[in-house]
Write a structure and sequence with these properties.
Length: 635
């Protein structure tokens, strides 16, 4: 919604739209939902018959009661089709009956900060413009609504709320948005701000304080609307006219809330059958644009009723501008105007079908309220220095007592941990200290945004869980080391940390004396950022360059036999347990076995479809080394 206007006239430029969204982002934007969803209300007005009442001028529609009507069935004139709506106004209904029955009850929502829309729909010559504008003797919906709205705001204004009203008037002519208050040929764009409000940058707005102000602006602007003569109507509207009235409210005392509501009064151009209107040239082009936009309007209603994921609002500027009215946030009323003569039968039937499906559309109105940013300022360094001296020692003493708590690293010997685990422990401990230091003052955590505060709390919780897991893991490691020590007659003296042998999970550590006595080949494998050592017995003191030459022939053959057995008889799960084998390769191996039989040797793995020679060599190396490591640990 646009902000309250300070002067008599203003224009919404692209820069102002951006600044409006920036101000709303700095303030608190609240949406107070209505008590229930608001269904689009649909009423039908039947204009009086024009003509002799015979032949094509004969009646084909008649009212049943104040909510229902019936129309002849064009397939069988002995039958009728019945329609029921929220209200039906017959030929004798006056302008006041329509306004008091369907329009005036909606205006009260504007004072609550909720949007409202009134649409006049129907074929050409059915009386839409008469319903909306009327005449000096019989005013229509627009002048009556503005008169009552101005009176309602005057009565409601006081110390609590102050009201201001402004208006804009535009037409959509051949898919161009044109300003009627200050006419020009410039096509105005339609924008949507971050709060999903539809705005028209560059559209003239004029503040009104009385009904005479409204007339001084509206009557000259209405004369600027495009009209023309056709065979069916002497003054046929060639464009859709939209009058937008903004009601802005400002609270007189804290929290100084601001509300903004929009009233849209739309006089749609009627759908036309060019065979009967005789349109040619420019009139034909205008008629095509009108029918196209009304067709998109019908598609929008169908998409809303069917619950489709995409509603084609952007397919037409009319539906884009009326996005709040159908399926949006407004209390909407559709006044469907129809003609009773047979010559308008199919136009009337189409209008009734549109009205019937429109009453199924459900809007979700809410109160649009903004609160100014009244958050307290963060205390500066100077203000903290100016605090009384008597309070400072207390804060420092409390802070010191918290820092004197023993950290977890002092309880766990870091020398027995892996370097990576020890570094991780120290980093987590430093993070917890920093967060505890910030929490002792209370200011940094409270002054951070909500998302940042939640992220810090989540990070602290994860840190505490990881520290607890590390402590449990260290206890398990110490218990395993105690069980692995052989009991002796005399208690053993504690060895130095550098010479102590500790058996850790997934790692085998040997003392320097044992490593000097045995001839071993150490093959280092890197996996997921960590080095993994596998000890393999060898007859040589140094590992040669070729990894197969560094292994005993019997162990190498034994490892290949195990891998070959898995390749020939292993299931999909067994194959996926091998290194470099995923679900896809496991299925390819099983398919190759079904086609060609068993593998004769491990090197035949490269014959599988999609496996290159390099991949096969890497597969053999990784699995043989892993198999030999398992054999060595079993021995």
């Amino acid at each position: 919604m646009p902000p309250p206007l300070a002067g008599n006239q203003s224009r919404l430029t692209d820069a102002q739209v951006f600044m409006t969204s920036q101000r709303l982002s700095q303030a608190e934007f609240r949406r107070v939902s209505a008590k229930a969803q608001a269904r689009v209300r649909v009423c039908v007005r039947l204009r009086p018959c024009v003509g002799t009442g015979q032949g094509q001028d004969a009646l084909c529609v008649r009212g049943v009661d104040s909510h229902s009507l019936e129309i002849l069935n064009w397939r069988n004139e002995m039958e009728t089709m019945k329609y029921r709506f929220d209200a039906f106004y017959g030929e004798k209904a006056t302008q006041n009956d329509i306004y008091m029955g369907s329009v005036q009850p909606v205006l009260r929502h504007l004072l609550e900060g909720q949007n409202a829309s009134i649409l006049a729909y129907g074929p050409t010559g059915a009386g839409k413009t008469h319903t909306m504008l009327g005449s000096p003797e019989q005013p229509g919906v627009i002048p009556r609504a503005l008169r009552d709205l101005l009176q309602m705001t005057r009565n409601a204004s006081g110390d609590e709320w102050k009201y201001s009203i402004s208006m804009s008037y535009l037409e959509i002519y051949q898919e161009k948005v044109l300003d009627l208050l200050e006419p020009s040929l410039h096509d105005l764009p339609i924008r949507e701000d971050r709060n999903h409000h539809i705005l028209v940058p560059g559209l003239t707005q004029k503040e009104i304080t009385s009904f005479s102000d409204f007339e001084s602006f509206f009557l000259p602007a209405s004369a600027n609307r495009t009209v023309a003569s056709t065979q069916l109507n002497q003054r046929s509207s060639r464009s859709h006219a939209v009058l937008m009235v903004w009601v802005s409210q400002t609270q007189g005392w804290p929290p100084y809330a601001r509300r903004a509501a929009k009233l849209c009064l739309i006089d749609l151009a009627g759908s036309e059958d060019n065979r009967r209107t005789g349109n040619k040239g420019l009139r034909l082009k205008e008629s095509g644009a009108i029918n196209t936009s009304l067709f998109v309007l019908s598609k929008v209603v169908d998409a809303l009723n069917q619950g489709l994921p995409r509603v084609p609002y952007r397919d037409s500027k009319l539906t884009r501008l009326l996005q709040d009215s159908l399926g949006g946030t407004a209390h909407s009323v559709i006044i469907t105007n129809i003609a009773p003569e047979k010559r308008y039968y199919f136009d009337t039937l189409t209008s009734l079908n549109f009205a019937a499906k429109s009453k199924q559309v459900v809007n979700k109105p809410f109160t649009q309220e903004t609160l100014p940013n009244m958050a307290p300022k963060r205390p500066s360094a100077d203000s903290r220095d100016a605090e009384p001296e008597a309070k400072r020692p207390c804060l420092e003493e409390d802070h010191q007592t918290k820092l004197e708590e023993k950290p977890l690293s002092s309880l766990i010997p870091l020398a027995n941990l892996e370097p990576a685990v020890a570094q991780r422990l120290l980093r987590l401990e430093a993070l917890e200290k920093e967060h505890a230091r910030a929490g002792s003052h209370g200011l940094p955590l409270l002054n951070t945004p909500r998302r940042a505060r939640q992220r810090l709390m989540k990070q602290l919780e994860d840190t505490q869980q990881e520290l607890k897991a590390l402590q449990e893991r260290q206890q398990e490691m110490e218990a395993g080391a105690a069980q692995s020590e052989e009991p002796g007659p005399a208690p053993r003296l504690p060895a130095k940390p550098r010479k102590k042998a500790v058996v850790l999970p997934f790692q085998k550590v040997q003392t320097p004396e044992e490593s000097q006595e045995e001839d071993t080949v150490i093959i280092v494998q890197k996996k997921r950022g960590r080095k993994r050592k596998t000890l393999i017995s060898s007859c040589e003191n140094e590992a040669p360059t070729e990894w197969e030459m560094a292994l005993r022939p019997d162990l190498l053959a034994r490892g290949k036999e195990n891998i070959l057995a898995l390749l020939n008889s292993g299931s999909e799960k067994d194959l996926m347990a091998l290194h470099r084998i995923g679900r896809k390769k496991a299925r390819l191996i099983m398919a190759w076995r079904d086609l060609h039989g068993s593998f004769e040797k491990v090197e035949d793995f490269e014959k599988v479809e999609g496996v290159s020679t390099k991949q096969a060599a890497s597969f053999i190396k990784a699995n043989i080394l892993n198999s030999l490591g398992n054999l060595q640990s079993m021995d």
